[in-house]
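Reply to dn_fold:

You asked what the input looked like. This is it:
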Amino acid sequence: MSQSLPTIVITGATSGIGQCVAIALARQGAHLVLTARSRARAEATLALIEAAASGTRVDVHYGDFAHVASVAALGREIAGRHARIDVLINNAGIHAFKPRVTADGMSEMVAVNYLAPWLLTNILCDTLVQSAPSRIITVASEASRQAAGVDPLAALVDTRPFTARGSSKIYGQTKLLDIMFSLQLAHQLEGTGVAVNCLCPGFNVTELGRELWFAAPLERLLEVAGHWRSRARRKHHRSPCRRP
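and this is what came back:
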């Protein structure tokens, strides 16, 4: 990476893991390039970043990952405005518990979870190669294990209806496609100085599962649990040391 401020592109950075990553990288002195759909949520995220790391350079680009033309325009805008990209983090994703088909005629989860990062990465690839050493990180999931034996080409065009229970398999298929894409991209970019990685972030309470009826109560429960853990740690640190 560059010795000055590394330029890091993060998709889906206005909530959940993406927002936490953006704040953490801001504290480390990164120049952030964030993608967002909602201007209101982008402004709220900018306020959080400013509170955590005042003076952080942040640029926001808007687009809808459910629409191919929007992703293409977003990618061209980022490439045109930023001559250097040290890291691309493909984080944006959705777990839809109801079947929805995009205006492009694709399953929403396929469009957002796989096609969007694939297209954005390809548009920004030349910039990343020119910026080497650089890195491409795509958020995958252990849910990909549910997609063993799937036909990738069939999964891309599958718009059949599914239930909330059956949605996990479809979600897993999109994450398996992300893993396959990362492996192939790593092979293609071998020797260019661009590292390609994918990862499973583990179980987290984010807006990924916002369509589930128990998502909000679960989030509140975990917030309360986190509050009490923090209090317990503070109390422990205040306690005098005990000698054996």
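The mean pLDDT is 87.
Hope that clears it up.
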